[in-house]
Amino acid sequence: MATITRTDFANRLRERFGLTTTDAAKLVDVVFDEIREALINGEEVKFAGFGTFKILTKSARMGRNPKTGAPAVISARNVATFRPSAEFRKRVANGK
């Protein structure tokens, strides 16, 4: 299974739209920066036909240290989540 990197995205934009390598890399960085900033500000980011990124707040809870089995407190934290759209799930399931 291959991994797609920021450079791969930039190269695909460059090839598809005729952008320079620098402009394509800047475009990818701007898009990811905007997503990141929106999430930091508590906003949801929705892409029609793709999915929604949002932040979930998890409260503190009891867990355990997997190595020792000793109880441990898992601190409260925010986590980024992605929920794919129905169209996205359907296309992935069909391999298209």
Write the layout of secondary structure elements.
Layout: H1 6-17, H2 21-40, E1 45-47, E2 51-58, E3 61-64, E4 71-74, E5 77-84, H3 86-93
Helix pairs in contact: 1-2
Counted by DSSP, the helix tally is 3
- Please write the CATH class name of the largest domain: Few Secondary Structures
Strand content: 25-35%
Rg computed from alpha carbons, rounded to a whole number of angstroms? 19 Å
Counting structural domains, the number is: 2
CATH topology grouping of the largest domain: HU Protein, Chain A
Element string (H = helix, E = strand):
HHEEEEEH
- The helix-and-strand class reads alpha+beta
Largest sheet, if any?
Answer: 3 strands, antiparallel
Total strand segments: 5
Written account of the structure:
The radius of gyration is 19 Å and the shape is elongated. The longest helix is centred in the first third of the chain and has 20 residues, at 21-40. Helices cover 42% and strands 28% of the residues. A hairpin with a 3-residue loop joins strand 1 (45-47) and strand 2 (51-58). The strands form 2 sheets. A 3-stranded antiparallel beta sheet has the order 1-2-5. Strands 3-4 form a two-stranded antiparallel sheet. The chain has 2 domains: 1-43, Irregular (HU Protein, Chain A); 54-96, HU Protein, Chain A, CATH 4.10.520. The protein is α+β, with helices and mostly antiparallel strands. The protein has 3 helices and 5 strands, in the order ααβββββα. The chain has helices at 6-17, 21-40, 86-93, and strands at residues 45-47, 51-58, 61-64, 71-74, 77-84.
